[in-house]
Specification:
Largest sheet: 3 strands, antiparallel
Strand order of the largest sheet: 1-2-3
Distance between the termini: 56 Å
Shape: elongated
Helix content: 25-40%
Number of strands: 3
Number of helices: 1
């Protein structure tokens, strides 16, 4: 079973309604690990300051809080799509796709 880990790597902020450091963009990585195989996806989430109901001071933010925001923004289908993409990468490592070979043409091919 694949275990998924979410890590927020960068937060971009702006001042809104005299409150500083509203997070408007979060860069994040999601990594899936299945035994010895690992795959990841890097993405960004953009937040609307109009939908902010409760301001959390920047210094009080945690990876868990921002990850919850991202997952809520994506919705269950978006989160599952990310997991499916990562699982597909892992499956390709476990069972690599067959790659066609570039075989030279036979000697009498054009005769």
């Amino acid at each position: 079973m694949t275990k998924y880990t979410w890590v927020v790597t960068t937060l971009l902020t702006q001042t809104v309604q005299d409150e500083q450091n509203y997070v408007v963009i979060a860069y994040y990585d999601v990594t899936g690990t299945d035994g010895t195989y690992t795959a990841s996806l890097t993405n960004i989430a953009t937040f609307s300051t109009a939908s902010v109901s409760t301001f959390i001071p920047y210094e009080d933010l945690t990876n868990e809080i921002v990850t919850n925001w991202i997952q809520n923004l994506l919705g269950p289908d978006g989160v599952e799509n990310i997991y499916a993409c990562i699982q597909g990468q892992i499956d390709s490592q476990i069972n690599p796709p067959v790659t066609p070979e570039n075989t030279p043409l036979p000697p009498n091919f054009y005769n």
